[in-house]
């Protein structure tokens, strides 16, 4: 086996709560040689302490010199290490700063334009993000490599029994079809457009059809309005969904709606397509790169269009089947193995 120990990975984020960044790193690591070197803090470090470890201690742990490269897979990395590849998921601190903590925004807006010109290469997870990195940090376009994310094989069409078990666990009535949306409640996720669309459908769509909103919290004021007097009819709020139940929840939906105004990539609609669930998505930022012609792409500012698309998806079985088929084919274009191979090839090239 070829010695790959010169490839050293900053795995600080694996000590954080599971999210998109942790999924990304876990999937890519599974594709890389097992004899690479992983560098992690001895204790859990989050927020400011984590960044202090990354800037102050990580450079001392990195074995530098020819034949070495550090991969920092989550936007930031140590300024003192030049032989470094950084993965950037998005430039949201510049593009939608109101969605983030002000201290977080201030630090990242200071760090990214200083770090990115210093490192060897930057990985962007979409062409949209690639262009935004160039725009906000001033690095040349050629310095940024676009390597798409993939979709886990956990997301696939599920049999009826798996769907029944999921419905029982989440208290979803067995006989009611549902439209699903997964999102945190940040303003850019644009839940308000979906809620407005659903309210427009109140007297037009069958009472059997439910809207299920699954996800965590965020800075949007939308959630504060979702009390017993404001929740639209036939709407179920699940809150955070256990990771083990998520694939079946997506696979069991009549349709998946993703009205986000801003994404660095857009894993949820990709996971829905891989599950055989038709997708209605915003046409903003990176989402057309992910969905392509395999879903319905709409202006995120037009609730009426989302309402019409949801109604069509519920009532038109031919449209539903066509989008489900196209989505399954589209999802095959995004295997994690391809992302892993491209990442390994780039790290080897920098390694020399």
Automatic annotation (TrEMBL):
UniProt record, GO biological process: lipopolysaccharide biosynthetic process
One Pfam short name: Glycos_transf_1
GO terms assigned for molecular function: glycosyltransferase activity
Alphabetized PANTHER family for the sequence: GLYCOSYLTRANSFERASE WBBK-RELATED
Name of this chain's protein: Mannosyltransferase
Coiled-coil residue spans: none
Superkingdom per UniProt: Bacteria
UniProt domain Glycosyl transferase family: residue ranges: 165-327
Keywords, in A-Z order: Glycosyltransferase, Transferase
Family annotation (Gene3D superfamilies): Glycogen Phosphorylase B
Domain Glycosyltransferase subfamily 4-like N-terminal: 94-152
């Amino acid at each position: 086996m070829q010695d790959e120990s010169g490839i050293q990975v900053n795995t600080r984020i694996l000590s954080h709560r599971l999210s998109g960044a942790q999924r990304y790193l876990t999937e890519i690591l599974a594709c890389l040689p097992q004899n690479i070197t992983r560098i992690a803090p001895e204790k859990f470090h989050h927020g400011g302490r984590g960044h202090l470890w990354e800037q102050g201690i990580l450079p001392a742990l990195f074995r530098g010199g020819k034949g070495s490269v550090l991969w920092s897979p989550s936007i930031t990395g140590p300024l003192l290490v030049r032989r470094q590849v950084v993965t950037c998921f998005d430039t949201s601190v510049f593009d939608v700063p109101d969605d983030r903590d002000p201290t977080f925004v201030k630090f990242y807006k200071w760090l990214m334009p200083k770090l990115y010109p210093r490192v060897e290469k930057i990985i962007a997870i979409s062409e949209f993000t690639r262009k935004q990195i160039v725009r906000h940090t001033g690095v040349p376009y050629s310095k940024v490599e676009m390597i798409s994310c993939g979709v886990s094989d956990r997301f696939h069409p599920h049999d009826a029994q798996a769907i029944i078990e999921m419905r029982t666990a989440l208290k979803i009535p067995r006989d009611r079809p549902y439209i699903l949306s997964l999102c945190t409640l940040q303003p850019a996720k644009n839940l308000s457009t979906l809620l407005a669309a659903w309210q427009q459908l109140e007297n037009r769509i069958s009472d059997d059809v439910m809207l299920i909103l699954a996800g965590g919290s965020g800075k949007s004021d939308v959630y504060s309005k979702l009390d017993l007097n404001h929740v639209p009819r036939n709407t179920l709020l699940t809150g955070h969904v256990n990771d083990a139940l998520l694939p079946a929840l997506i696979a069991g939906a009549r349709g998946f709606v993703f009205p986000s105004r801003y994404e660095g990539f857009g894993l949820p609609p990709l996971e829905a397509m891989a599950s055989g669930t038709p997708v209605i998505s915003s046409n903003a930022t990176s989402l057309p790169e992910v969905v392509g012609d395999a879903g319905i792409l709409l202006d995120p500012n037009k609730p009426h269009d989302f309402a019409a698309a949801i109604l069509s998806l519920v009532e038109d079985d031919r449209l539903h089947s066509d989008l489900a088929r196209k989505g399954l084919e589209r999802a095959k274009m995004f295997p994690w193995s391809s992302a892993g191979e491209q990442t390994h090839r780039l790290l080897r090239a920098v390694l020399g």
